[in-house]
C-alpha cells in the first residue's frame, strides 16, 4: 500500500491494469500526498491513462449498483428478518455512494471525514459499524478500547451500529449525546436543533444540550429534537423514517411534502437550484423519487405534475405555472 | 458536475455503449487489432471526460464521432498503418443511432452476468471482490477475514476489476440475439 501502483509502460492491457489498481485504491481511501503526485504524473503522461482510469472508476462504481440488486433480490420474497438489517442496508446504500478520488478529506490520524455538497459517503468502521455521511457533513471518529465515540461536527449522519455491549457507541452533536449498543439511527444538526431519528432498536439521549434532566430512551420510529424551545419527541411511521433516510441510498423521496420544502431538500445536494416564486405552487403537495443532485429531473417532474414550466435563470431552474407564466 | 456525479454519468450513459463501439470499430476497420481498439476507446474516454457533459445531448453519437476523429488522427500520424483502413474511414462518417444497439439488460440479467463473470475469476480474487461488493467490507476487514495482508487484498481487487472490466468489453451474451462469444479474453498472470 505504501508503494505506488507498479509501473510498467505500454499497451492497452497494461494501462487497464494500472488504471484498475489506482481506481481500487482511490475508491477505498483518500490518496496520500505522494500517491496523488504519482497518480497525477501517470495521468499526465498520456491521455489514454486518463481514459482508462475514468473507465475503471466508473465501472467500479457501477458494480455497486449491480451488487446492490443482489441485496434487493434476497429482500423481496419474505418480510425482512430484522436481525441482519444493517447488512442489507449496507448493500442498498452502496447504490449511490460517491467514490470521489481526492474529494473526500479523510485525515486518518484525526479520524475526521467530511463530505461536500451532492455527495453521500459511507464509511465502514473497524468494528463493522457503518457511518453514512449526508452531503456537506463532517464527523470525527474516536474509537477507544471501551467506547466507540463519534462526533458529528456538522450536517447529518446515519449510524448502523454493530452490536457490542462491552463497548458502547456514543454519538455527540452540539452537546447532545446519543448512546447505542446495537441499532440504527440518524443524527442531524438542523436549524431547529439536533434531531435524532431511530430506525431500529433503542438509543439513550443525554448531554447538557439535550434539555433533559435524565437520559431518555428513543425507540424505533421515534424522533427526538433538542430544540431551543425545549426537547420534543415525535412518533413517525416507518414510511416517514424510510423517507427520512432515503438520502443514504442516494435518493430523495417525496410523499406528499410541500413542493417548496421538497425543492429546498433537492437544493441541498445541487449547485443548480430549483426556485419556486409562486407561493401557491410552493404549497402544492408533491410525490416522487429522485436521485440526489438531479435538480433538473425534479424540476421537470414537478412541472409536468402541476402543468407548469421550467425556466432557466442563471444557476436556477425556476418553476412556474403555465397560466402565471411571466412574460419573459 | 462534481467528480462523483461525472463518474455516475459515465457509468450510466457512456459505459453501456462501449461493447457496441468496440464491435463497430473492429468491424469497420480491418486494420485495427484489439490493442488498437483499446487505445481508441481509452483516448475517446479521456476526451469525453474532459468535455462538457451537460452540453452532450446524445452520448452515444458523441462517443462514436469522437472515436472516429481519433482513428482519423491516428491514421494521419501513422500510428495505425493499414492500407485498407483509409478507405474504411468513410464508413465511420455515418453514425447511425440505431445501429447495433443492444437492448439494455434488466437489473437481474446484469446481476446474473456479473455472477457469471465472477465464476471465471481466480478464487481469492473472487472472494475479495464478493466481500467488497456484496458484503460491503472495507479492505481491512477483507484482510482480516481472509487472513491476508491488506496490500494483497488491494492487489486481488485490482485484478478482479481488471478481469471484470475486460469481460465487460464485449456485449453481454443475452443481448446479442443468442450469438455465442467465440473469442477468449482471459489473460492470466
From TrEMBL, chain B:
NCBIfam families recorded: sigma70-ECF
Family: Belongs to the sigma-70 factor family. ECF subfamily.
One BP annotation, GO: DNA-templated transcription initiation
Keyword Transcription regulation in record: yes
Keyword Endoplasmic reticulum attributed: no
InterPro entries (UniProt xref): RNA_pol_sigma-70-like (IPR039425), RNA_pol_sigma-70_dom (IPR014284), RNA_pol_sigma70_r4_t2 (IPR013249), RNA_pol_sigma_r2 (IPR013325), RNA_pol_sigma_r3/r4-like (IPR013324), WH-like_DNA-bd_sf (IPR036388)
MF term (GO), any: sigma factor activity
Residue ranges annotated for the RNA polymerase sigma factor 70 region 4 type domain, each copy included: 112-162
Species name: Sphingopyxis panaciterrulae
Protein name: RNA polymerase sigma-70 factor (ECF subfamily)
Top-level taxon in the UniProt lineage: Bacteria
Pfam families assigned to the protein according to its UniProt record, in alphabetical order: Sigma70_r4_2
Record's keyword terms, sorted: Sigma factor, Transcription, Transcription regulation
